[in-house]
Amino acid sequence: MFRRPHNCWIMAAALLVCPSGAAHAQARSDENAVTQAEDAFGFSVGRESLGIYNSGNVRGFSPVAAGNLRIDGLYFDQQWGLSGTILDSTSIKVGLSAQGYAFAAPSGIVDQSLRHPGNKPGASMVANWDSYGTYGLEVDGTLPVSTTLSVGYGFNGTHQSFPDGTNNFNHTESLILRWRPTRAIEIMPFWSLNNDYDDEAGTFYVPAGPFLPKLPRLDHNEGPGWADFRYKGLDEGLLASTRLSENWVLRFGAFRSVWDLKHSYSGLLVNEQPDGSGDRQLFVDPPNKQQSNSGEIRLTHSVPDGPRLHVIHLSVRRRDSKQEFGGSEFIDFGPGRIGEDMTAPRPDTFHFTQKSHDHVEQTTVGFAYDGRWRNVGEISFGISKARFRKETDVPGDAAAITRSSPLLYNATAAADLTKSIIVYAGYARGLEENGVAPDSAANRKQPLPAILTQQKDAGIRFHVTRSIKAAAGVFDLTKPYFGFDSANVYRQVGTVESKGAEFSISGSVTPRLDVVAGGMLLNPKVTASSAMGNIGSKPVGLPTHLLIANANWKSPLEGLELDVALQHRGRTPATTDNLVFLPPRARVDLGSHYRFRLARRSATFRLQLVNLFNNEGWGLAGSGVYTGNSGRYVQGYLTVDF
Questions:
Q1: Pair 215, 207: CB distance under 8 Å
Q2: How far apart are the first and last CA of the chain?
Q3: In what helix (H) or strand (E) does residue 239 lie, and over which residues does it extend?
Q4: How many structural domains does the chain have?
Q5: Which of 155, 192, 569, 605 keeps 20 to 30 A from 491, CA to CA?
């Protein structure tokens, strides 16, 4: 039987998920994504990350937009991302890594583990910088109050500079408590608040025809200096678990997530000509707030049966989210050109119109089963009934109410062909969110309808050697496809089927050399609605492939480790009509960790040269909307554990 990470065979039955956030069990100076990642599908710890997927892109789609996030395994509807001062690590669950994961979703699961305060006092300090001008300081730690109560705390203050010349100042404060009044009960409330100031709005570039735009030089913000974002981001919640008896565990998670925008701007250079000239436009948004209350209560019962283990889950998930959108003022500044700074003064007043409101309520009741037979295989399935209600209130129109009560289900099976070879297959049907319309759309920022998605996948996992494991699989994912119609309204224009393959190789080649490599090969196809006009057969933003390779070498010089990261992204459709493609792009990063003692404390100095060959290329912010990527730069940080 495939052994789960961290030897969680029995613990997974009792606690549902492996307790990967065991607070400061690993010092922050030891953080290294290459040596800690289980596979190449997506992993981050502290300030380091790697993988072919991330929380915004799994198999060509976004788990964040779809609502497939979890906190320590429990359902979380995110409006503002968890701060690094309370977040220990993030793992992407797809394919075999999602085997046995209750209520799997077609777009993958993003499982976030919190920093659980430990029993011993300790703290870490991280000072960071980069050659664009970023600098910051982060402190987090644990303070035991008693044998049953520990407090975790965190602070981060950063002046962030971006490749396009914009910058901001932000600070985050967080608290997390871990109370264990008995051996069977754990209660963990947390709170994290982020404040962002003077966050300059960059510029998006929209060409006048089917060609890639000329982009401005890096580290130069040509937008108006007064067009700054100001917002607050809040995440707070409560995690609790109790062992009712030897084989019964009850878990509860309740979360509140808020993104409170005080003022925001979106700058555009539209109708851009090949020489870089165009028209300067600016959208000014009124204050708006996105907020959500969400959570899950789950009862888990395990039934040991000799070499077999049966695990049953009963779950109720709930979310109540509200969003504001619209009411923006549009300002046309007239002709402009790349490289020329905007000097127009800030208007004395802005004339906002009434805002629209979107309110979603969803309750999902589910049953899941996971059966494991040691050295034979595993089978799991889940079935859920969702009740979904969405009310959209646009000024001047009657309230639009959408209701849906779909039946959602998933099933997976894995078989142990040998002690080191496992094959698996799975199917999932889910109800997922779909984000908001992009800034360049006539219905910009309007929440999009929830959609039904389905996925089939299969694959194999095996050990190349005792210390190197590999996985390979195929998948077929079908979703409604959203794009621009002839009126520039962003809405469903067809369906997309993404067929692809993925692979991962990870482990220790030698005691000194660790590798994580993988790739995704994608062949998506759009079937457009007959009345939608010129819709290409390839979906916007999905590359033909993405390949990565990471290696970390412990040099003979004590404490010095060298690393390299390689990435190659394939040709990518850039417009809905497929008349423009982004060319392939490669990136090479070189780095090092130097571990030493500083004032008798464990310390690590991290230095990294990013994008060695200065291959900037274009970033894609939507169909026919472009930004620049970062060029070559240096970044580093110093971590000290106390």
A1: no
A2: 40
A3: strand 228-245
A4: 1
A5: 569
Contact in structure between 591 and 563 (CB atoms under 8 Å): yes
Looking up tokens 């690393």 gives 563
Q: Which string of DSSP letters, residue by residue, matches 455-478?
A: EEEEEEEEESSSSEEEEEEEEEEE
Alpha carbon 368 to chain centroid, angstroms = 25
Strands 109-114 and 69-71 turn out to be parallel
| 521 vs 333: CA distance, rounded Å | 43
Residue 185 tokens read as 């009960």
CB 22 within 8 A of CB 116: yes
The answer to the question of residue 52 being in a domain is yes
Confirm whether 593 is domain-assigned. yes
Calpha distance 32→52 (Å, rounded): 17
Give the tokens for residue 379: 């089978």
- Percent composition of the chain: helix, strand, coil (DSSP 3-state, to 5): 5, 60, 35
357, part of any domain: no
* Residues comprising the chain, all counted: 642
Type of residue numbered 595: R
Buried b or exposed e, range 213-222, using 16+ CB within 10 angstroms: bbbbebbebb
CA distance 166 to 222: 9
Q: Which domain holds residue 40?
A: 5-335+375-641
Cα-Cα-Cα-Cα dihedral sign, residues 437, 441, 445, 448: negative
pLDDT in tens, 378-410: 999 999 999 999 999 989 888 888 888 999 999
Q: Give CA–CA dist 93/53, Å, rounded.
A: 10
| Residues 243-272: tens digit of each pLDDT | 999 999 999 999 999 999 999 999 999 999
In Å, how far are 147, 315, 472 from 556, measured between CA atoms? Answer: 42, 52, 34
Angle at 520 between CA 514 and CA 526, to 5 degrees: 165
Q: What is the pLDDT of residues 491-521, one digit of tens each?
A: 888 899 999 999 999 999 999 999 999 999 9
Instruction: Look at residue 353 and tell me if it is in a domain.
Output: no
447: DSSP letter: B
Contact 118, 88 (CB under 8 A): no
Number of Cβ within a 10 Å radius of residue 607: 14
Whichever domain contains 512, its CATH number is 2.40.170.20
Say if residues 455 and 425 touch (Cβ distance below 8 Å): no
Of 135, 136, 194, 198, residue with least CA distance to 166: 198
Are the beta carbons of 311 and 14 closer than 8 angstroms? no
The Cα 186–Cα 176 span in angstroms is 13
| Both structure tokens of 20 | 């990967």
pLDDT for 22:
42
Report the amino acid identity of residue 114. Answer: L
Question: pLDDT per residue over 99-134, tens digit each?
Answer: 778 888 888 899 999 999 999 999 999 999 999 999
